[in-house]
């Protein structure tokens, strides 16, 4: 298969971001509620103690209702923080209802960098992963920064389960793939769970 042009990926990214931004507020609220409902009944999440999640931006499905449900179940939630020294890498820090969030350079709210709140990848049970688009074989198209591609590179070694989170409209037939792309074993949308492993 020929190497996909960056242009294809860029055009697809723009198209799907436009689709999810076009959802009405009502559709967004409904999608977030359905996602939270499905997610808490998904066995790996129901059995998990340490869960990495993300706060939604740019029309992404709102993860706050899900986070609230997981907190009620006494789960420990961690959010990604841009690594202060290793450019393009993420750290995951504990997020509680009391955590004060500050926007990072990408304007995404993150917890303060505190070594006591840090969790290593091998201590995580599940990592909920943002994406722009996914296809029917579990390939994921991210925002283009490569943060999650790097984080997911050795997920099997670290023994956490990566699960994509998306609106139904973010599913495409087939994504152009690149050598560094890491397919996901599962994706949760408001209407269903996709699993490939």
Automatic annotation (TrEMBL):
Cofactor: Mg(2+)
Organism phylogeny: Bacteria, Pseudomonadati, Pseudomonadota, Gammaproteobacteria, Enterobacterales
Chain positions recorded as substrate binding sites: 55, 60
Keyword Iron: no
Gene3D superfamilies tied to this protein: NagB/RpiA/CoA transferase-like
Gene Ontology biological process: folic acid-containing compound biosynthetic process; tetrahydrofolate interconversion
Record key words, sorted: ATP-binding, Ligase, Magnesium, Metal-binding, Nucleotide-binding
Top-rank lineage group of the source organism: Bacteria
Protein family: Belongs to the 5-formyltetrahydrofolate cyclo-ligase family.
InterPro entries in the cross-refs: FTHF_cligase, FTHF_cligase-like_sf, NagB/RpiA_transferase-like
Single GO molecular function: metal ion binding
Catalysed reactions listed for this entry: (6S)-5-formyl-5,6,7,8-tetrahydrofolate + ATP = (6R)-5,10-methenyltetrahydrofolate + ADP + phosphate
Protein name: 5-formyltetrahydrofolate cyclo-ligase
Broad EC category: ligase
Pfam families associated with the record: 5-FTHF_cyc-lig
EC number: 6.3.3.2
The keyword Nucleotide-binding is annotated on this UniProt entry: yes
Residues that bind ATP: 9-13, 140-148
């Amino acid at each position: 298969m020929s190497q996909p042009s960056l242009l294809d990926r860029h055009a697809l990214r723009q198209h799907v971001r436009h689709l999810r931004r076009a959802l009405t507020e009502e559709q967004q609220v409904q999608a977030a509620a359905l996602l939270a409902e499905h997610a808490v009944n998904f066995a790996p999440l129901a059995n998990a103690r340490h869960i990495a999640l993300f706060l939604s931006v740019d029309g992404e499905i709102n993860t706050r209702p899900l986070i609230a449900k997981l907190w009620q179940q006494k789960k420990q939630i961690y959010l990604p923080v841009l690594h202060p020294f290793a450019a393009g890498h993420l750290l995951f820090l504990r997020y509680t209802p009391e955590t004060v969030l500050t926007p990072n350079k990408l304007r995404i709210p993150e917890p303060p960098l505190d070594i006591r709140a840090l969790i290593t990848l091998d201590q995580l049970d599940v990592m909920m992963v943002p994406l722009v688009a996914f296809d029917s074989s579990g390939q994921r198209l991210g925002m283009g920064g490569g943060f999650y591609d790097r984080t997911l590179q050795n997920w099997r070694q670290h023994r956490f389960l990566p699960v994509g989170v998306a609106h139904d409209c973010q599913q495409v037939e087939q994504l152009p793939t690149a050598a560094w792309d890491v397919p996901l074993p599962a994706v949760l949308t408001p209407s269903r769970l996709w699993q490939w492993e």
